[in-house]
Amino acid sequence: MAIPQPPRLALRPEIDRFAVRERFIPTEPSVRPVGNEAKGGGNLDQQTRVLIIDDDAAIRALTAEFLSGHGIEVATGAGAIDLYAQLKAGRFDAIVLDVMMAGEDGLTALSKLPIADRPPVILVSVLGNDVDRIVGIELGADDYLAKPFNPRELLARLRALVRRSRLREAGGSGSVWAFGDWRLDAAQWQLTAPGGADVALTPGEFRLLLALVEQRGRLVDRDRLLAATGGEEADVFDRSIDVLLSRLRRKLTDHGGRDLIRTVRGEGYQLALAARPAD
């Protein structure tokens, strides 16, 4: 007989957080970038501002100390109110956001951030379950880390996110694309159907469609789609791709785009219409 699992609300956060702190603390008493490791981020780190929002003061301080030791400018906050205030006060290149915060949780806070203006977001959670991860990606999170995490892995993921974000900005990712009578505005996160109706997409659905559009009708494999929607843990995010594709196709179908996304079995996906930058 299967052993029943305790409900999610039965978690005791104070115990889990203590375990997180114990495993988070680096093995070296003082961590500073040296040798080749210091070259990993270089000027990128020194030009990067990261906002850490976590209601556990110990984890918040340890994370900030580690990233600061690598030349990253760090600001911190204990909850959603601090998140909104910090974003209003200044610009950040990335956000590290705890999911299980007291009061307003991280997923709710993420859903309230303006999509077009917010920096890349890494969600962190002591639970690390698939549902939270998929919901986070649908809401526009760029990555997800389960606590306890290795701070060096967080640093590596932050560097990758910031680098991708800056490459997109330099490459004109704010372009307006046209494919058939459809228009997609990457800067405003807006899809317009033939006839002028706006199609409401989640951030995850939008990123998926944008990845297809940017290939201008060429085949896109699942790995590229995984990279476009964020995350490194393929088993979880592979399932999220299926969910996002199904929902995206349903919304496109509702506006006359039933066959807009083609599946090439064993190879990947492609847009049925060749896309081009709009005039």
Q: What is this entry, summarized?
A:
This protein is α/β, with parallel strands linked by helices.
Give keywords.
5-stranded parallel β-sheet; 279 residues; 17% strand; 11 helices; alpha/beta; 5-stranded antiparallel β-sheet; elongated
Beta-strand portion reads 15-25%
The helix content, as a percent range, equals: 40-55%
- Rg computed from alpha carbons, rounded to a whole number of angstroms: 20 Å
Structural class by SSE content = alpha/beta
Query: Quaternary arrangement of the chains shown?
Result: single chain
| Uncertain parts | 1-39, 232-236
Shape: elongated
Strand order of the largest sheet: 2-1-3-4-5
Largest sheet: 5 strands, parallel
Q: Write the element-wise H/E pattern from the N-terminal end onward.
A: HHHEHEHEHEHEHEEEEHHHEEE
SS element count, helices: 11
Describe it for me?
The chain is an alpha/beta fold and 279 residues long. The protein has eleven helices and twelve strands. The strands form three sheets. A five-stranded parallel sheet has the order 2-1-3-4-5, with helices on both faces. Strand 6 (176-179) and strand 7 (182-185) form a beta hairpin. The N and C termini lie far apart (64 Å). The model is unreliable at 1-39 and 232-236 (pLDDT under 50).
